[in-house]
Write a structure and sequence with these properties.
- There is one protein chain.
- By secondary structure, the protein is α/β, with parallel strands linked by helices.
- The protein has a single domain, classed as Rossmann fold (3-Layer(aba) Sandwich), CATH 3.40.50.720.
- Helices cover 41% and strands 14% of the residues.
- The protein has a seven-stranded parallel sheet, with helices on both faces.
- Strand 2, helix 2 and strand 3 form a beta-alpha-beta unit.
- It is globular.
- The relative contact order is 0.14.
Length: 271
């Protein structure tokens, strides 16, 4: 059922859980969901950044609960899901966002590093989807939005298991969509392009990198977390009620620039 004009997105009063809520995209998503009237459960492994996000939302008048959570640990996820449900009620919306990026060429990548990235970026998404998905299935409805990456479509050089893990997230979401869709649960992916977050901030501090990256994006700038959060909020909402199993790329057009790298005399950019 569509929402009325005072709650266009239909998220007012909904219970939303966000992993990796301590900063970057996760923190921006938590604020965006509060801004449209949702209650927010914050899940984060780092106590300090979790407390910062919680304090910000409480100061803004949010209905919020915070839970320390290691998404790679099944017991930790179960405890966080139970805490969130006890404080706010059953989950209506899950945003799977917690992630890890580690450098490493495949030829020398250790199994421990491979497993570490996959345990958080892919297995963690499964564990969280199961824990909160059971609440949605019991209530016969809900929406999941999983944060992947443009690296799920284009291999990211020398980044170990990162691209593989994000490609796995896309397929995990699609499998959830077809298995749980008949029981009322939608599942979609948002794949960001270049985004300035705590995870990538070190890159932008190198001289000239911010300017060079912005020049590669057709819209002329690198995304901020809020740019991703707005799309996540839409997909979580009633306005996307007929969307499931999709992977929405939010990259300012960056992924469409491949042909621009091909030399074509006479077809240069107008001066």
């Amino acid at each position: 059922m569509a929402s009325d004009g005072t709650d266009w997105l239909g998220l007012r009063g909904k219970v939303c859980a966000v992993t990796g809520a301590g900063g970057g995209i996760g923190r921006a998503v938590a604020h965006a969901l509060h801004d449209v009237g949702a209650a927010v459960a914050l899940l984060e492994r780092d106590p300090a950044t979790l407390a910062e996000t919680e304090a910000q939302l409480r100061a803004a008048g949010a209905r919020v609960v915070a839970a320390i959570c290691d998404v790679a640990d099944e017991g930790s996820v179960a405890a966080a899901a139970a805490k969130a449900a006890g404080a706010l009620g059953p989950c209506d919306v899950l945003v799977n966002n917690a992630g890890l990026l580690r450098p490493g060429p495949l030829e020398s990548l250790s199994l421990a590093e491979w497993n570490l990235v996959l345990s958080i970026n892919l297995t963690g998404y499964l564990l969280v989807s199961q824990a909160f998905g059971r609440q949605m299935l019991a209530g016969k409805g809900g929406a999941m939005v999983h944060i992947a990456s443009i690296a799920s479509r284009f291999p990211q050089h020398f980044s170990g298991a990162y691209s593989v893990s994000k490609a796995g997230v896309v397929m995990l979401s699609q499998q959830i969509a077809v298995e749980w869709g008949p029981r009322g649960v939608r599942s979609n992916v948002v794949s960001p392009g270049l985004v300035r977050t705590p995870l990538s901030e070190a890159f932008y501090r190198a001289p000239g990198v911010a300017e060079r990256r912005a020049a590669m994006v057709p819209v002329g700038r690198v995304a901020m977390p809020e740019d991703i959060a707005d799309v996540v909020t839409l997909l979580a909402s009633e306005r996307a009620r007929y969307m499931t199993g999709e992977d929405v790329c939010v990259d300012g057009g960056f992924g469409r620039t491949l042909m621009g790298l091909v030399p074509r005399p006479g077809y240069d950019q107008p001066k």
